Amino acid sequence: MSIVIANLDFVKERNISAVYRVIVESGSISRIQIARQCRLAAGSVTRITRQLIQAGLIQEQEQQFSERGRRATSLAPSLGKVQILAARAGRTELHIGLCDLSGNLLARSSIPLKPVNQVEFTELLISSLREFIDTHQQHIRCLVGIGVCTPGLVDSSKGIITFMPHISISNLPLAEKVTEAMGLPCYINNFISSMALAEHHFGVTQGVKNSLYVSVHNGVGAGMILDGKLYEGSNLAVGEMGHIQIDPLGQRCYCGNFGCLETMVSNSVIESRCHKLLQSGVPSLLSEQANISDICKMAKAGDKLAHDLLKEAASNLGRAIAMSVNLLRPDRVVLAGEICEAFSIIHPVLTHCLKSQTVCVNDELDTKIVCSEIYQSPWYGGFTLVRRALLEQGLLLKLL
């Protein structure tokens, strides 16, 4: 009997989540269309939607004509009834945003972040979240969860951070601590994986079943969407593209290997190489304080040194992307980071690498390389974690 009850509970949860997800993703849909898409009986859809209406999560809209000429009532999500608090903890800044269910930003803030250990980091994060809520109380109606993204290695299923590149961390149960302090469910993940998921929900890979998200910033990392789901692997070291060996005789990486991609392609590496070449007398309009944005800007303006630096970086990056494409065969590769400011310069190099270093069935490339459109919106990663929990992972049942 207990097994039967467990199965019934699972089916109920799955059906409610499926109906709500269809309504949220469609924006407006009739009960008949819901029944078809979810493959449920009309009576089941009626019962579930009545429960969602009573909870204030969906609402009936003005009538529309159905396929048979009869008037059918549309159902739409009540966007104002669900709000999500999202945070991205970078190396130097903490970004916090308040969003509705569609990802519309209602309020945001950014503060300096320079903790040295996990105790300071946790305290600063929680105090900042509390201060944000106090400051933006006029916008807050119904928070359902908090999403937090960090660099490093994160066990999202357990809510534990095991490594951060700039803070001393030892199995920090961050999700549990934030939940206890804030009284709201907290979901955490690596920033790059979270942004890969956000691109799939809202960005340039929306509707694409298989995609690779490649971020070039302080290092190089990747997030993978396979068959419409975020791939998180069986351990934490997923998407470490920056540690693909490009040059066996190259510089030693902090991971212990030699010639990793990160030692050849990252903002700091490109900037450092630029400064050394300037000091050696290579002519350029760039100054010795030039950052990656300056290099991209001058490359587009025709500066040869800046142009050559980016083409060299793109060539090394393209080799690693080509290896990944041969292995995963994604439909789309999304590039993110400041280097995208010179996308017109690096894109031909990356495309050439894919054409020359991957197995192509046709003359045309099966995999397209595009630039992220939401990279500059740091709250999208954490927001998408909570949204996924609401639509797919049982958070909806807690609200009901």
In short, what is this structure?
It is built from 12 helices and 17 strands. With 400 residues, the chain is of the alpha/beta class. It is globular.
CATH class of the largest domain: Alpha Beta
Rg over alpha carbons: 24 Å
Overall pLDDT score: 90
The secondary structure category is alpha/beta
CATH H-tier superfamily of the largest domain: ATPase, nucleotide binding domain
Structure description:
By secondary structure, this protein is an alpha/beta fold. The protein folds into 3 domains: 2-77, Arc Repressor Mutant, subunit A (Orthogonal Bundle); 81-197 and 378-399, ATPase, nucleotide binding domain (Nucleotidyltransferase, domain 5); 206-371, ATPase, nucleotide binding domain (Nucleotidyltransferase, domain 5, 2-Layer Sandwich). Helix content is 41%, strand content 20%. The protein is built from 12 helices and 17 strands. It has helices at residues 2-26, 31-38, 42-54, 118-135, 174-182, 191-202, 267-279, 292-300, 304-328, 343-357, 380-392, 395-399, and strands at residues 29-30, 58-60, 64-65, 71-72, 74-77, 83-89, 93-100, 105-112, 143-150, 153-155, 160-163, 186-190, 211-216, 220-226, 229-230, 332-336, 368-371. The strands form 5 sheets. The protein has a 5-stranded mixed β-sheet with strand order 8-7-6-9-12, with helices on both faces. Strands 15-14-13-16-17 form a 5-stranded mixed β-sheet, sandwiched between helices. Strands 1-5-2 form a 3-stranded antiparallel β-sheet. β3 (64-65) and β4 form a beta hairpin. The longest helix is centred in the N-terminal third of the chain and has 25 residues, at 2-26. Residues 1-6 have low confidence and may be disordered.
